[in-house]
Prior knowledge:
Layout: H1 5-15, H2 20-36, E1 45-52, E2 60-63, E3 69-73, E4 85-87, E5 95-102, E6 105-108, E7 117-120, E8 123-125, E9 128-129, E10 135-143, E11 148-149, E12 151-154, H3 156-163, E13 174-180, E14 187-188, E15 192-195, E16 202-205, E17 213-221, E18 223-224, E19 229-234, E20 243-244, E21 250-251, E22 256-259, E23 265-266, E24 271-277, E25 285-290, E26 297-305, H4 323-335, E27 339-341, E28 344-345, H5 351-375, H6 395-400
Parallel strand pairs: 12-13
Antiparallel strand pairs: 1-26, 2-3, 2-7, 3-6, 4-5, 4-8, 5-6, 9-25, 10-11, 10-26, 13-25, 14-24, 15-24, 16-22, 17-19, 17-24, 18-23, 19-20, 21-22, 27-28
Helix pairs in contact: 1-2, 1-4, 2-4, 4-5
Amino acid sequence: MLDTFDDVWGKVLLRVPSAGSLLARDWVTNAFRRVAERRRWSWLIKYGQFVVPASYTTGTVTVTRFATTVTGLGTTWTTDMVGRQFRIGTATPIYTIADVTSATTAELDAPWGSTTTSGVTYEIYQCFFTPPSDFHAFVCLWDPSFNWQLSLNYSQQELNAWDAQRANSGQAYLLAARDYSKSSTGTLTALTQVTGTGPDPVITGTYTGATDAIFTIECTTGGAALTAVFRWKKADGSWTSNVTTDTLAQDLQEGVQVYWPDTVVYVDGDVWVTQARVVNSVGLPRYELWPHNKANYVYPFLYEARATDLQDTGAVLPRYIRGDVLLEMALAEASEWPGAGADRPNPYFNMQLALMKRKAAETMILELERADDETYMTNAFYQPVAYPYAPFPDANWLQRHA
């Protein structure tokens, strides 16, 4: 039977009861983290894929200098396009779509820096990709259709020297680190009615905007849900066109939603506001596939994941990390803990014992590394020869062809 996190910290607590469960858990968690970050373990290797959507060019757009809003004509944009790239020609920067508020309105991640332009063709496609949330490093990335492996060790400086306009498109053959994704999960206050005394709709969703903002909602035609009409705006922006109320959540902008319960009658002229506040979180690395592939495509990859924290909900010890190793490491840390105070010393405190425990743990970890090498081969060496039809000559092949 495999050891569990609870098994290991429980054994620590049996030996050092004065530490309490919180310290015992913390020592085991620290021990596992040190083991996990020691090398590229086979149990950290995972599979992923970058799915490239086809380029979208339907309709035309209008962009305004120093504004983030893009207005489409004849477009059918969807929220699936959030995170994809937007560009007009090759003489302007590549922007990322931060939000799609309607089939004809989208928000960019930065203000449009070039001149105001209307009725022009454009392109929405994806060339920047974010790996899974537990990503640490790539092992390999390949193109199964063209039968090659993509290069991973290139920088933005090199790409900018070769193709600053990113005018090249087609089959990608390298991946370059780009930046970190912008990640924010904001909060919304309950709606506050500032005009009128009628019943309230309900605000919901997770705000993803870059700055704090006030959203204002006004009922413009009274009645029950599905009949009443409303309009809304963000901060000092323009009012939207009148929108029919719905009992299901309706998207406003940047993750904010509103719905109208169907058991009441809403009053014309009533106004509500909600405060949207930004709560920033850590972003993920973002990579650029180059040249830019603008067709439906998939690039599989293997990556090294960051080990989970053992105190996370649902976390389990990997099959190949024995509990006795973590126990020795945790006890080494326990041996270095003098206690909670002069009146509550730790009987297990012994620096010589700590040294012995660390040496024992090191020997055990070397055994784990050997076992991992046997489980998952990462280094194979082949003798180079002059025969083009023998790409992988091993010792057996060399003996038969001496």
